Automatic annotation (TrEMBL):
Species name: Pseudomonas bharatica CSV86
Molecular function GO labels: 2 iron, 2 sulfur cluster binding; DNA binding; DNA-binding transcription factor activity; metal ion binding
GO annotation terms (biological process): response to oxidative stress
Pfam families found in the cross-reference section: MerR_1
Protein name: Redox-sensitive transcriptional activator SoxR
Keywords of this entry: 2Fe-2S, DNA-binding, Iron, Iron-sulfur, Metal-binding
Keyword DNA-binding: yes
InterPro entries hit by this protein: DNA-bd_dom_put_sf (IPR009061), MerR-type_HTH_dom (IPR000551), MerR_fam (IPR047057), Redox-sen_tscrpt-act_SoxR (IPR010211)
PANTHER family: REDOX-CYCLING DRUG-SENSING TRANSCRIPTIONAL ACTIVATOR SOXR (PTHR30204), REDOX-SENSITIVE TRANSCRIPTIONAL ACTIVATOR SOXR (PTHR30204:SF0)
Domain of life: Bacteria
Length: 157
C-alpha cells in the first residue's frame, strides 16, 4: 500500500499501520484518541489517518504508563504543545523534568514499602493491627486512616 502524504508533507499512516508499528492493539489507539492523547484526521473514505509523528507520542505514552504516570498527567504534559507536533529536545526535557519529582516520590514510596514488608513479614504475625513490635495496642489506628508506617517511612520520620 502506498503511503499517503498530508497537505504539509507529513506522512500519514492508517490505524492498522500505526498499531503494528507501535506494538499496540487498534483499540488502544482508539482509546488514546478518545482520551485526547493522540489525534487523527479522516480521509475521503472516512478512514482514520495519523501523522507518522504519532509513533513517537505513543512510545512516550507507553513508557510513561509503565512508570505509573496516570493518563491524565500524560495528557496534560502533551497538552502544552500543538497536537501531532514534532517536539524539540527542550520540550521533551520539560516533560521529563515535570515527571521526575513525582517518579522520585513513587520510588521512595516503593522502597519504603519493600523495606516495611520485609520487616513485617519477617516475624510471621502478618498483622499490623495486633503486631506487638510495630503497632502495640493499635496506636497507629488512633493516628488516622491509611498506611501510617509506610507514610512515615516515605517522609523519613
Amino acid at each position: 500500500m502506498a503511503e499517503k502524504k498530508a497537505v504539509d508533507g507529513m506522512r500519514l499512516l492508517s490505524v492498522g499501520e500505526v498499531a503494528r508499528r507501535a506494538g499496540v492493539p487498534v483499540s488502544t489507539l482508539h482509546f488514546y484518541e478518545a482520551k485526547g492523547l493522540i489525534a487523527s484526521t479522516r480521509n475521503a473514505g472516512n478512514q482514520r489517518r495519523f501523522p507518522a509523528l504519532v509513533l513517537r507520542t505513543i512510545a512516550v505514552i507507553k513508557v510513561a504508563q509503565r512508570t505509573g504516570i496516570p493518563l491524565e498527567e500524560i495528557k496534560n504534559a502533551f497538552g502544552r504543545y500543538p497536537p501531532n507536533s514534532k517536539l524539540t529536545a527542550a520540550q521533551w526535557g520539560e516533560m521529563s523534568t515535570a515527571w521526575r519529582e513525582d517518579l522520585n516520590a513513587r520510588i521512595r514510596t516503593l522502597e519504603a514499602l519493600r523495606d516495611s514488608l520485609d520487616d513485617c513479614i519477617g516475624c510471621g504475625c502478618l498483622s499490623l493491627e495486633d503486631c506487638p513490635l510495630r503497632n502495640p495496642e493499635d496506636r497507629l489506628g488512633l493516628e488516622g486512616p491509611g498506611p501510617r508506617v509506610l507514610e512515615a517511612a516515605c517522609r523519613g520520620s
